[in-house]
Amino acid sequence: MSGKIWCAFALLMAVCLGGCRWGGETQGDESAQDTTTVDSVSVQEQLSPEEEMLEEAALSPRVDELFDDFIYTFTRARGFRNSRIHFPVIVTAIDGTVRRESSREWNDNMSFLNGEYTTRFYASAQQMSLDEDTTQVHASVEKINLQDGTMTSYDFQKMQGKWMLTACRHQHIEASDMADFLQFYTTFSTDSAYRHESVSKNLHVSMMDPDQDDQKIDGVIQRDQFSAMCPEVPEGIITNIRYDTQSYGMCESFTFEKGSNGWKLVNYEN
Asked: CB under 8 Å to 114, separation ≥6 — which residues?
């Protein structure tokens, strides 16, 4: 998956935030499920060069090996996306009501994943060690709106070896198991004074030296030094992907820990 991934390690001092415990096994239900998919885009719609390349690449079974590769293609190739939605999609509204949307009713293409970078939140650094695991059968993509305090989760299941979008859930951020951290991060990302106070006085960094090419800074710096060179942090609408595999390419990592005085940024790596 190309593009830059911004990673945040949200670590609790006593209890780590764990990933979701997904529902029952899905593979055994495949034969009983009533699925309707749309296989291609309209002939009147002209594909972009990138879409043509992705549609061709999607013919390979390798597109379903890693979820990262699948979701990159899914969000950018319309024909492929239409063929990978398991209708009717089960949609849970923010008030808890559930409806089933047909192909005519469904209109969400998840374009929020098409930016220059995506964000990931990990409960621990150990989660990243599961990279390249091709045995996953359930993944969830989260759209987190820090501005209005809502989030939408898109659930995918692997059916007969192919990733399929099966459900969509809307909820308030406060109902998430990451609510405490996300409420902190909302202020951290928008309030520079608060962000400064939320950085450890002695911060460990590992990054390329902005003043010297091919030189790396790896050590402890003072809080004020980091504030002067701190990159912009994602704000507004951010993303998360929940599954055992955590794939990443170019990655900026911010590690936060929660102590008696609240959350602190303790490590930065680029």
From this structure: 75, 76
